[in-house]
C-alpha cells in the first residue's frame, strides 16, 4: 500500500485551485440554478440534481483529496468541515477517520469499480431500459409525449431482446417488463453484473464520487459530473420520449441506423468511464495509504 509523504500546497496555490473549481462548478450548474429561480423543469438535465441529490452548492465545494496539506488554512471555513484535521503544517483530509466511519461503503465502491473495469463491456442493450420503464403504462415519469405512442413503444419492447445489467435501472421496469429482461440484477449481484457499456453505470460514477466525499479531488468529481451529464443526453435522446423540444434530437434505436449511432456513443462513454474508474480507485488507494501513514 503506497504511503507517500503528504504534498504541501501553499495558500496561494490551493486557493487558486479552489477558485478554479468553483468557477467550473458554477458554469456546470448555471442552467439548473436559473431554471429553479424561474420555477421551470427540464426532463433531461434535472435528473442530475434529483436522482443524484447533490446540490449545486455541494458540487462547487472543492477538496484536494487525501494526502494534500493546505498550508495557511487554519482560519479558513474548511477548518470546521467534517473529515478534516489540522496539524502544524496545515489542514488536510482526515482519511483515517473517513475510512473508519464509512469503510463498508468505500469497500463496496472499490470492489464494484474494479470489477466493472475488468469486465468486458456489452454494447447490445440499445438503451431499452428506458422503454421498459414505460411498457404498458398509461402514466409516465416525465410529462413528455412518447415518440411512437404507447402502442408503438410497447411493440418495440416486445420485439427486443432486453438484457439490462444495471439494478438501479431494472428496478424501475414496469411489472409487465420485469420478466422480459434476460437477467435479474440485484444490489447483491451488482458487482458481478455491472459493466462499463451500461450508460447508467457510467452516470453512477458521479454518485460514487459524491459518496467518497473528500477522498475525491475536486477535478475528478467534476469530471464524473461532466460524463454523467453527457450520458444523460444520450439516455433521453434514445428513450421513447420525444425530447427534441429540449435540444435532444431522437436517436431512433428502433432502427438499424439508430442502433449504430447509439453504440458509437456508448463505446466512447465506456472508454471515458473506465478512465474515471481508474482514477477513483487510485484515489481510494491513496486515501488508504495516507491513513496507514497516520
Automatic annotation (TrEMBL):
Organism for this UniProt entry: Microterricola viridarii
The protein's name: 3-methyladenine DNA glycosylase
Origin: domain of life: Bacteria
Amino acid at each position: 500500500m503506497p504511503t507517500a509523504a503528504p504534498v504541501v500546497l501553499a495558500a496561494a496555490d490551493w486557493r487558486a485551485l479552489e477558485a478554479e473549481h468553483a468557477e467550473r462548478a458554477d458554469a456546470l450548474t448555471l442552467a439548473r440554478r436559473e431554471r429553479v429561480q424561474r420555477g421551470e423543469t427540464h426532463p433531461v438535465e434535472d435528473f442530475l440534481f434529483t436522482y443524484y441529490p447533490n446540490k449545486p452548492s455541494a458540487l462547487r465545494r472543492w477538496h484536494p483529496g487525501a494526502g494534500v496539506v493546505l498550508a495557511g488554512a487554519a482560519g479558513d471555513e474548511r477548518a470546521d468541515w467534517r473529515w478534516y484535521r489540522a496539524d502544524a503544517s496545515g489542514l488536510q483530509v482526515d482519511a483515517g477517520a473517513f475510512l473508519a466511519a464509512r469503510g463498508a461503503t468505500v469497500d463496496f465502491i472499490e470492489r464494484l469499480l474494479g470489477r466493472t473495469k475488468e469486465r468486458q463491456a456489452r454494447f447490445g442493450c440499445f438503451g431499452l431500459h428506458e422503454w421498459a420503464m414505460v411498457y404498458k403504462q398509461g402514466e409516465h415519469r416525465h410529462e413528455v409525449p412518447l415518440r411512437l405512442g404507447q402502442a408503438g413503444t410497447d411493440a418495440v419492447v416486445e420485439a427486443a431482446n432486453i438484457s439490462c445489467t444495471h439494478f438501479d435501472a431494472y428496478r424501475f421496469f414496469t411489472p409487465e417488463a420485469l420478466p422480459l429482461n434476460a437477467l435479474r440484477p440485484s444490489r447483491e449481484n451488482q458487482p458481478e453484473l455491472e459493466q462499463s457499456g451500461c450508460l447508467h453505470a457510467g452516470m453512477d460514477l458521479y454518485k460514487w464520487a459524491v459518496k467518497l466525499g473528500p477522498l475525491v479531488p475536486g477535478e475528478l468529481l467534476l469530471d464524473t459530473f461532466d460524463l454523467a451529464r453527457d450520458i444523460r443526453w444520450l439516455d433521453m435522446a434514445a428513450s421513447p420520449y420525444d425530447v427534441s423540444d429540449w435540444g435532444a434530437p431522437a436517436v431512433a434505436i428502433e432502427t438499424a441506423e439508430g442502433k449504430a449511432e447509439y453504440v458509437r456513443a456508448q463505446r466512447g462513454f465506456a472508454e471515458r468511464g473506465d478512465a474515471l474508474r481508474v482514477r477513483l480507485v487510485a484515489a481510494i488507494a491513496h486515501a488508504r495509504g495516507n491513513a496507514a501513514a497516520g
